Amino acid sequence: MKRRDFLKFSLLSLASVSSFGEDLRAKSLIVFYTRSLNSYFVADFISLKTGFDMLKIKTQSPYPQDYDEMVKRVLFEKQSGFKPALKPISLRLEGFKNLIIISPIWAMSLASPIRSFLNSFDFKGKNIMPIFTNAGFGVGNALNIMKQECPNANFLAHIELSFELFERKIRNLRALNLAKIKAKQSILSKEDEQKLHAHLEFKSFKKF
Questions:
Q1: Which of 28, 24, 48 is nearest to 206 (CA)?
Q2: Which residues span the domain enclosing 98?
Q3: pTM of the predicted model, to two decimals?
Q4: CATH no. for residue 31?
C-alpha cells in the first residue's frame, strides 16, 4: 500500500475508534507475536481501528536469525511440546476481558511463544478472537491448540490472513518490513483490510 493511501486509511481508522466505547477499549487488548513483523502490521491496523492497546510477546532467548536453523528449532518445539520462556509482561491481564490474539503459523501449528503466553495465565471467562497469519498453507491445528490451552475461555470466530511474502521465499523479510514501518507503509492489501474490518464489525466485542 502506498504511503498516501496508508495515511488516508489510518485517518479513517482513527475516526472509527469512537464506535468502540471508552470502557470497551479499557477492557480490550491486542496480543501478538511476530518474527518477520508480518503480524505486527495486523496488530497495528486493528489498534488504529479500535483504539485497543497492543502487547508484543517477547521470548527470553532470541530465535536463530538463519531461516534454516529456525525451521529446525520450530520442528523441535512442535514435536517436543517445548514452550519458550517469555520476558516479563508489565500489563495486568486481569483487567482485560477481551483479547485479540495474533499468531503466525509455524509448521502448521500455533507459534510456540503464543502457546507459552496462553499457558502462563488463567483465561477463564475471557473473550478471545484468534487471528492467524500464514504463507497460504492454512492454520493447521493452531485453533485446536489455542482452545486446549484456554479451555474456559469464550472463543469468537477466528480469521486467517495469508501473505505472499514469507521467510522461506525472502530471507531478509524482517529487514524489508522494518523499512516499510519506518516509511509508514503497510503490507496489508485492501482485501486484507476489508476482511479485517468486516470481521471486527461483525464479531466486535461490543456485545460483551
A1: 24
A2: 3-207
A3: 0.87
A4: 3.40.50.360
